[in-house]
Amino acid sequence: MAANLREAISQGEYLPGTTLPKQEELAERYGVNIKTIRQAVGQLESEGLVTPIRRRGTVVRERPPMRRLGTERYSKKKWKYGDTVAFIADREASGRPWQRTDQTQTVALIEADPEITEAYGLQPGSQVYERARTVKDAGRPTHTLTSYYLPEIVEGTPLVDPTPGPAGPGGGLAVLTLQGYEPDHMSETIFARMPTPEEAETLELPAGEPVMILTRRTYTANDVLIEFARGVHAASRFSWTYDFKLPE
After folding, report:
1. Among 3, 36, 83, 94, which is most exposed with the fewest C-beta within 10 angstroms?
2. pTM assigned to the model
3. What is d(CA 182, CA 175) in angstroms, rounded to the nearest whole number?
4. Hey, which bits of 94-139 come out as E strands?
5. Which helix (H) or strand (E) holds 185?
């Protein structure tokens, strides 16, 4: 039964954003009982094809994901010589509208956890600034990104200002440059896992949808680490695009 509904969705019989017929109607159409329909819909929900919405019913999820650029999203022509921060670069590449307030953040001085301590070479118990952002697309959360900075680098800068939106023209990379720590190269690691209950709630994930975890380290030309960041992305809301020259 799930295969029939899955095919109907893939063939465009039930378009993204529309509500599936009531379960009684589906049972009558396919000649099965309500329990079979309920199980089939539950399977589609676990696959991320549909999601239940209160007072609406079971809605077919929007499938075209946002394009998340690879190296190009960090191009200096965007943030150093322009005013396009990374999440805005993704929106423009995907042909989606955006507002600066699509990004909100909280800032706190915290004790570095073991991973951050190792990355920066700190003593246990050292403090770092945590800048935690939630990014939305048309009011719907797409991902969170949390950056960790050494206080001596960012103290008194827009990077420790919790005002919604990027940290001024050019965003955080421009702020670091003005502080004398111009970003030169990055290292990104990506893997998938199931979300924690808190992540599922924050990103408004349907049951069964995984998240893509991004870990990013940003360095100066002299290999000084100036940002350690972790991102949690709703897997179905992004496609990841990387353009690069093949190494020798």
Report:
1. 3
2. 0.80
3. 9
4. 103-111, 127-137
5. strand 185-193
